[in-house]
Amino acid sequence: MDTKQKSKYKKLLLNLKEELLIEISQKKVVKENNIEGDDADIAAEYLSLQMTQLFTKREKQQLDQIELALEKIERDEYGICEECGDEINEKRMQTLPFVNLCVECKGKSEEEGSSTIHSPLDSNQENEDEDEDEDDSLLDSD
Question: What is residue 47's predicted lDDT score, i.e. its pLDDT?
């Protein structure tokens, strides 16, 4: 990535960072003990509080990703996939300038993430398979 592109992304990232900091600072977090009204009002305010906290958490995570991307620009590592080391596609960088994985590696990580979710039946089957393997190894040692 050339100096002009790095400068462009640095400016974009700094603008995103500023916008996020403004959003975070403008959030009004209502403390639970200040909620008044009937049960419906309290439930609505509580739900609103939870949503605000959720969005604030996501915004803080995004802010961390922006900070990391800015550091990578300084280290000449910006735009490089952390997984495979290839350059991240320009369109992807324009859409999400703080990404750290190329499309292919992101897809793989999502596939791996979904494949690691097992039902309780899966773990029971794995335990049964391990028990069978242990029984087989005992028979083989004779």
Answer: 73
- DSSP codes, 47-105: HHHHHHHHHHHHHHHHHHHHHHHHHHHHTT-TTB-TTT-PBPPHHHHHH-TT--S-HHH
DSSP summary character for residue 126: H
Q: 78-100 b/e with 16+ CB inside 10 Å = b?
A: bbbbeeeeeebeeebbeeebbbb
69: number of Cβ within 10 Å: 24
Do the Cβ atoms of 101 and 88 come closer than 8 Å?
A: yes
Judge if pTM exceeds 0.90: no
| Ranges of each domain in the chain | 3-101, 105-142
Residue 141 has pLDDT above 70, yes or no: no
Predicted local distance difference test score (pLDDT) of residue 30? 42
Tell the CATH superfamily of the 3-101 domain: DksA, coiled-coil domain (1.20.120.910)
C-alpha distances (whole Å) from 131 to each of 116, 126, 138 are 21, 9, 11
